[in-house]
Amino acid sequence: MMFKLSVRRFFAAASVALLALWPLSSVPAAAAGPAVIFIVDTNAVFAQSKVGQNIRSQFEDQMKKLAAEGKKAGEGLQADAKKLSDERALLSQEDLQKKVAGLQKREAEFQQSFQTKRQALQLGVQRAEAKVEAALAPIFAEILRERGGTVLFDQSVVLAGGADLDISAEVLKKLNERLTTVEVKPVTPEELRAAQQTEAE
């Protein structure tokens, strides 16, 4: 491969507080008391879910296509460089410099093109992940209501224990029932430029 992508973890390691999703008016005043906490391993849920595996499969397929494009373009540049090296004795210094500059320009354009495609695919994956996160939020709230919970934490912030409080299996079951596929589509050049401008600011 000409390059490698580093895909960010699908969900940030942070606690998930869901009281905001659960109207306080639905909780009897007499029920006020210690928080009832549950735990979910969002990374495991995503990795094991049908939609998570679908997103990963699409990403890998598209990366293979990018790698094939990169290999073909790279081999073309190498062949042209070798040809130029073989012909250098037949060229004037001025012509040689022009051809070298032209080759360098093509190489730079090639690198820029694949960098752009890589970033576009990364943002496409992030958009797909966001759709899964949107599907998970009501699932979290629903299970908390069913179990009488008030707060949900991600497993990544739990230092020890909590196995009996883990609702990951329930979350996974509901997610698989509600969402199995999400299209991974690289963003458009316009969207990519807008995202880059936002990052720069």
Strand segment tally:
2
- Counted by DSSP, the helix tally is 5
Strand content: under 5%
Radius of gyration: 25 Å
**Structural class of the secondary elements?**
mainly alpha
**What is the string of helix and strand elements?**
EHHHEHH
User: Which strands sit side by side, in order, in the main sheet?
Assistant: 1-2
Q: Could you say how many structural domains there are in total?
A: 1
Q: Which range best describes the helical content: under 10%, 10-25%, 25-40%, 40-55%, 55-70% or over 70%?
A: 55-70%
For the terminal residues, how far apart are their CA atoms? 33 Å
Shape from CA axes?
Answer: elongated
Mind summarizing the main beta sheet?
2 strands, parallel
Summed over residues and divided by their number, the pLDDT gives a mean of: 83
Unreliable spans are: 1-31
